[in-house]
Amino acid sequence: MNKKIHTLKYILFDVFASLFAWSSFFIFRKMYIEPQKFGHKIPLTLEMKYFLGVIFVPLFWFILHYVDGYYRNIYRKSRLQELWQTFIISLLGVIILFFGLILDDQVPNYKTYYLSILVYFSFQFLFTYIPRVLLTTNTIKRLRGRKIGFRTLLIGSNGKALRVYQDFESQKKSTGNIFVGFINIHNKKSDTLCQYLPHLGNFDDLTEIIINFSIEEVILAIELSEHEEIWKIINKLQYNNVIIKALPSMYDILTVGTSVKMSTPFSSPLVVISRDLMPAWQENMKRVIDVIFSIIAMILLLPVYIALAIGVKLSSRGPIFYAQERIGRYGKTFLIYKFRSMLTDAEQNGPALSSKNDQRITPFGKFMRRSRLDEIPQFFNVLIGDMSIVGPRPERQFFINQIVKVAPHYYHLHKVRPGITSWGQVKFGYAENIDEMVERLKYDLIYIENMSLYVDFKIMIYTIKIIFQGLGK
Known about the structure:
The protein has 473 residues and is an alpha/beta fold. It has three domains: 3-144, no CATH class; 150-272, 3-Layer(aba) Sandwich (Rossmann fold); 280-469, no CATH class. The protein contains 16 helices and ten strands. A six-stranded mixed β-sheet has the order 2-1-3-4-6-5, covered by helices on one side. Strands 7-8 form a two-stranded antiparallel ribbon. The longest helix is centred in the first third of the chain and has 36 residues, at 3-38. It is flat, with a radius of gyration of 27 Å. 32% of the residues are buried.
């Protein structure tokens, strides 16, 4: 399946739908509404208002659909949900455009406004929904016919795993799962399951297997004797962008601290363990805010960038900026950028955390750290999508390997983009050792469980307060 091309189809159909709806509504106004106002026929001329609409109206609808989360999970759509989603967003968008572009139209009476809303909504809804439902129906047909599907990894080795596999394969209408292979907990091959699926490797290599085989879903079908390993599996899977499902018999074990919902395919019912941390519209709006805020910040803070660059250069020899490899969302490696606050040979003896009276920090570096100004180059990381403004602070793999030995649930932080500031950073500050990193972890886990735009704004306000008061640890 080529998800990008399929998503592009939805986007293009939505763009053309908005163009046709706007053009049809423009003709309706010229042919019906304006003659009622002026008492004679109005020539159909394309005005500047129409051309501005041709440019900005499709952009408006694309942003609205994106924020609503319509373009996510395009292979997992429900036609009934799609009908409701298209109806609500079409109504919302038409009302916004009415007050923004149509309210100043010359009309014979106020009832014409209601007619305008109804007509424009009808055009927008029908032109948008019909292509969508045709695309979605075709996709569902191909999924059920096993022409396309989700690459699936089975974790298990004996009776339960074999039963799940056979149930899925015997379905007349497929749920879309294409089994690529299996692994088990104790790294032993199953002669029974090997007759049907290839054994892909050891459990310790789970992340590499998911990446190498482009796994999209993982189904857990482990035996009762292996239930004590469940959190080990979940923590390992949190490192990856996959959907996690399990047999209902494991429900009581899996729901301890985990929010789940039931998913019932045509045969074996499964529990969906993985979940969205935020509603789709909030997650997409968070990304939009990240991009807009970063662009504005990089422009407005340009004099600050210049001043800090001069300060860093005069404080000690070495480069102005410091780039360091960190681990981001789903375990992706990226380079984080900072103003250099330490001497250039600060880690000549290997990775080391900074402390309160760290001699490696320059005097100007101490000032930047107290006010968090050394972090502002990371607006570039936010802009390119490696980070968010608010999110758990990213760490190096060297320290992650030590943290997970005492706190394996650290991997849950990789479900979100790391941030310039975080609840842990606000409440705890910089960590000086592994114990403090684990202590700070609880604040970041609380943030993840309560993620919302409101919480993000609250953290940003506290961060600004720390910057101006110079209270950073």
